[in-house]
Design goal:
This protein has a single domain (4-132), classed as Nuclear Transport Factor 2, Chain: A (Roll), CATH 3.10.450.50. The chain is 32% helix and 37% strand. The protein contains four helices and six strands. Strand 1 and strand 2 form a beta hairpin.
């Protein structure tokens, strides 16, 4: 029998696999319709966005227009789970459509209830984001 924390880790793994191949629907495949995505920092991408459709539209615009193939190849370094929360440390590799390297480091905290992602809080190198992607 698989534990709840193992199931939650699998949800995060599926999401990261999805964004790594540019499948943003898979990235949000286990998200609740009212999911909230929070990006911590002070860039044009920072702040809270709620609603699966709204988040998907924003990701498609940001990644689809900004990155080659509309994807960031992500490699999970660590997954730590307790209760409804999974902390994920990941590195990402991408190239912008303008040819700049966009290799960032991420820490996300996922809140998952009853098999659905409710909140994702993302911490990343906002200076790199600002320099390479933010306009």
């Amino acid at each position: 029998m698989t534990s709840q924390t193992d199931q939650n880790k699998d949800i995060v793994r599926r999401s990261i696999e999805g964004i790594s191949i540019g499948d943003l629907e898979a990235f949000l495949g286990d998200a609740a319709d009212d999911v909230t995505f929070k990006v911590i920092g002070q860039t044009s991408f920072s702040g809270d966005v709620s609603g699966k459709k709204t988040i998907l539209k924003g990701l498609k615009r940001a990644l689809g227009q900004g990155l080659e193939g509309g994807r960031i190849k992500m490699t999970i370094q660590n997954l730590i789970a307790e209760g409804n929360f999974v902390a994920e440390q990941t590195t990402g590799e991408a190239r912008t459509v303008a040819g700049k390297e966009y290799n960032n480091t991420y820490c996300r905290v996922w809140e998952i209830e009853d098999g659905q992602v409710k909140v994702v809080t993302e911490y990343l190198d906002t200076e790199l984001l600002r320099d390479v992607l933010a306009k």
